[in-house]
Amino acid sequence: MYYFYKNEFVHKQDIQISPDDRGYYFGDGIYEVFRVYNGQIYEGAAHIQRLERTASEVRLQLPYSNEEIIDIINRLIQGNNLVEGTVYMQITRGEAPRAHPFPTQAEPIVLAYCTEVKRPLTTIQNGIQAITQPDIRWLRCDLKTLNLLPNVLAKQTALDHGVQEVILHREGTVTECSASNLMIIKDDVLYTHPANHLILHGITRAVVLRLAHALHIQVKEEPFTTNQLLQADEVFITGTTVEITSILRIDGQVIGTGTPGPTTQRLKAEFEKTFLQ
Ligand code: PMP
C-alpha cells in the first residue's frame, strides 16, 4: 500500500509525522472518507463539495484544486489496485509550535491513503441493534473535523452494551448516530433530522433522500423525539460504509416487526440498482 503525504506518494513506513502538526495536538484539521466501488469513487463531487465547505468554515485553505484532489484519490486507487474500499483524506492546518492562534507560516498538510473494505453484507441484510445516549458534541456537527472524541466514546459505549451503534439525542430530540445518519419510517413517511448545524450532512443521507423522492416516498426533514423513534414502523441508518442498515432493536425494545421493513428494503434495492450494478 502506498500513501500520499505532504505532496508525495510514499510508503507508509517513510512517513514521519511531526509532533508540531496541529492536527496531532489540537485536532486542528478536517477529513473525508470516500467510498470506492469497482475501482470508482462513489459520489466524488458531493464529498469534494463537503470538504470545501468544511475547509472554508474552519478557515483552512485547501492546498489543491478539486481536480487535483480527485487525481490524488484516483492515483491511490490505481497504485494500490483498490477495487472495493475507502480512501481517507485529512488536511491539517500545518506544523507550528503549540499555540492556539493560527500560525502565520504553516502550510496545510494532506495525508491520504486507501483501505480495502468489503460491504458489510451481513449487517446490511440482517440489521443491527442500538442504544440511545445524549448527544454531547459541540454545535457544529455539520463540519467534518478531526475532533471525534465524543463519537469515539459513543461508539465504544455501544460496543460495551453489546450493540453496534448509538443513537444520539439532544434533550429528547434525535439528531444522528455516532458515525451515521438516522431515518425513520412512520405511516409510510420518511422522517430525518434537517441538515443543519446539529448533524453531519451525510453523502448517503442525501443519496437516500433522492432515491426516496424517485420512489415517491414522502420525505419530511423534521426533528423527532426518542419516543417517536421507538414508535416508528422502521428505523435505519445511512452512511458511506454502512450504506442503508436497519436498526431492529433500540434500548432493548423491538422496532416494528423486528425485521428490516418494506420501505427500507425498497430503498436498499434502489441503492444497489443505482450504485452496484
Ligand atoms: N454522521 C456522522 C457523525 C458520521 O461520522 C458519518 C460518516 N461516517 C455520517 C453521519 C454519514 O455520512 P456519510 O453518508 O457522508 O458517510
TrEMBL record:
It catalyses: D-alanine + 2-oxoglutarate = D-glutamate + pyruvate. GO terms for molecular function: D-alanine-2-oxoglutarate aminotransferase activity. It comes from the Bacteria. Its EC number is 2.6.1.21. SUPFAM superfamilies: D-aminoacid aminotransferase-like PLP-dependent enzymes. The keyword Transferase applies. Keywords: Aminotransferase, Pyridoxal phosphate, Transferase. Transmembrane segments: none annotated. Its cofactor is pyridoxal 5'-phosphate. Coiled coil: none annotated. Belongs to the class-IV pyridoxal-phosphate-dependent aminotransferase family. NCBIfam families: D_amino_aminoT. Homodimer. This is D-alanine aminotransferase. It comes from Paenibacillus qinlingensis. The lineage of its organism: Bacteria, Bacillati, Bacillota, Bacilli, Bacillales.
